[in-house]
Amino acid sequence: MSDFLIDVVLILVKLGLIFGVLLTMAAYLVFAERRILGRMQLRHGPNRVGPFGLLQPAADAIKLLTKEDFIPAGADKVIFFIAPGLAAVTALLTFAVVPFAPPIELFGRQVPMVVCDLNVGVLYFLGLSSLAVYGVALGGWASNSKYALLGAIRSLAQLISYELSMGLAVIPVILMARSFSLTDIVLAQQGAPFLLLNPPAFLIFLISVVAESKRIPFDIPEAENEIVAGFHTEYSGMRFGLFFVGEYINMVILSSMITVFFLGGWLGPVLPPIVWFFAKVLACCFFFIWTRGTLPRLRYDQLMHFGWKVLVPLALLNVIVTGGVLLWIKG
Amino acid sequence: MNLWRDIKGTVRPFWITLRYMFKKPVTIQYPEQKRTPSPRYRARIVLTRDPRGEERCVACYLCSAACPVDCISMQAAEREDGRRYAAWFRINFTRCIFCGLCAEACPTLAIQMSPDYEICNRDPMKLVYEKEDLLIADGGKDNEYDFYQHAGIGVANPRGGNEDEYGPVDIKSNLP
Ligand code: SF4
Ligand code: SF4
Predict the structure, then answer these.
(1) Closest C-alpha residue for ligand 2 atom 2
(2) Among all residues of chain B, which has the CA nearest to that of A286?
(3) Tell me: the pLDDT tens digits for A251-272?
(4) B10 in contact with A at a CB cutoff of 8 Å?
(5) ipTM of this complex prediction, to 2 decimal places
(6) Model confidence at B1: pLDDT above 70
(7) How confident is the model at residue A297 (pLDDT cuts 50, 70, 90)?
(8) CA of B119 to nearest chain A CA: how many angstroms apart?
(9) Region for residue B145 given its phi and psi (left: phi exceeds 0; alpha: psi -120 to 50; beta: otherwise)
(10) What is the separation of C-alpha A303 from the centre of its chain, rounded to a whole number of angstroms?
């Protein structure tokens, strides 16, 4: 009984920690993104609030909270309220299965550094990332606006297309690790990270992940000034902010997934595992930001062509080849 | 090799942005760093004085007429000695587009554009400048110019007494 209680408390503590760390990370990623993009364009970026502009996220939060919150006439109120939360929550939930470090010894107990070591963690992740589509769909639909609806449909087409290649790129990883559990996948990379063993899968996954997080060069869903944004056209204030935060949480999640699937998770020499994990995640986030500073947006037809005619066939081919090679090695 | 070109075109920009990230930003950080605008910069408008310290403006309404947004208004008045001046003179800087047409139009060099661009204000009423706010104790761009030394009716010098003027013509003498 007391064992069970301790477990519950531990899980709650871990949840709280993850929640705090993740939200801070999301807030500071926004800031880091603005600073880094600024430097890439020979500007400074936000540097007014606090030392080096470090209080900018707080200022942004105050601004978003005090802005007028507008609900369009004829909007489906309940769904309109829920949609932004849905976008953020689905992203947050994924973190339940991400392992940060190997289990540690605490007061004579094995404490796994993951909220819940699901043995089908990969499926859970894929399922939740498909669920994230709901936030977009409902947000666009509940706004009672043609622009939002069209934008939502546009985004959905993109998200679903790239969801496919993302799922297909994970299959070789599962084949190589012989497990659906994220912890096992990390442990299977003790020899070499899957990035080196299967670079095509990594590339496909990376590209699909960038598309999944709705970022440049796949940021058709949020082309704010050019094609009136899309699914969040009618959102304002903190509700819009939630979509925004959701996007950045999503970025952290997807970076951790890249880390777990291809970069060997917490594995690494010298430094403690958790540092390696965060370093790798941050490196992935930096790559996202870097891409945003570098590439132009794809046109919509190019985007769909690329997804369906290049990524999906390549991913399928990669699954077959990886399977064949694994069988050959074994045989 | 189109594919090769595409791949190169996708990868190379990454190197360029990375390199630029370590360059020094070119931004001028405004409140701390200020640039001196060029002398012909068109910002806050001033009313200048002639070398003797008198108001140059003769309230001829030309600036007001030239202004495309109608933001100058004034009331003409005349002194005992015949010198004209503006009883009040008002520029509404919330409307002014700093085109400089008023300064072009002015025959006495009274109204001039200055390079002082820091006149923002949260309260629009504070941007309505009266004559006291506009008048400065200086000649501005051409310090030496004094309109009444060249024209005007017997204020600085007797009629026709200015150096580039003829004396009054005796209208009886030049009859045909
Ligand atoms: S600068 Fe142009 S707009 Fe401003 S007062 Fe002069 S004429 Fe009018
Ligand atoms: S400022 Fe110049 S143009 Fe305007 S009323 Fe005075 S003298 Fe005339």
Answers:
(1) B106
(2) B18
(3) 888 898 899 888 888 887 878 8
(4) yes
(5) 0.77
(6) no
(7) confident
(8) 22
(9) beta
(10) 19
The residue nearest atom 7 of ligand 2, judged by CA position, is: B57
- Nearest partner of A184 among A95, A267, A269, A278, judged by Cα: A267
Pair of tokens at residue A295: 């590439």
Do B96 and B78 form a contact (C-beta atoms < 8 A)? Answer: no
pLDDT above 70 for A228? no
CB contact under 8 A, A290 and B26: no
Q: What is the pLDDT of residues A65-91, one digit of tens each?
A: 888 887 888 778 888 888 888 877 888
Residue owning tokens 């590209």 = A207
Would the CB of B109 count as within 6 Å of ligand 2?
A: no
Q: How far is the CA of B161 from the centre of ligand 2 (A)?
A: 23
Per-residue pLDDT, averaged over A34-55, amounts to 87
Q: Is residue B155 within 8 Å of residue B113, measured between CB atoms?
A: no
pLDDT band (50, 70, 90) for residue A246: confident
All residues of chain B having their beta carbon less than 8 Å from the beta carbon of residue A39 are 20-23, 25
Q: To 10 degrees, the CA torsion angle through B2, B5, B7, B13? A: -150
Helices (H), chain B: 2-21, 62-66, 101-105, 131-134
What is the structure's pLDDT at A295? Answer: 86
Instruction: Please tell me the distance in Å from B35's CA to the nearest CA on chain A.
Output: 17
- Model confidence pLDDT, tens digit, residues A1-32: 677 888 788 888 888 888 888 888 888 888 89
The answer to whether residues A56 and A46 touch, using CB atoms and an 8 Å cutoff, is: yes
pLDDT the model gives residue B123: 92
Task: Please report the DSSP string for B15-38 in residue order.
Answer: HHHHHHHTSPP----TTTS-PPPP
Residue type (1 letter), A304: M
- Which residues in B lie closer than 8 A to residue A44 (C-beta atoms)? 25, 27, 29
Q: Which residues of B fall in the annotated binding site for [4Fe-4S] cluster?
A: 57, 60, 63, 67, 96, 99, 102, 106
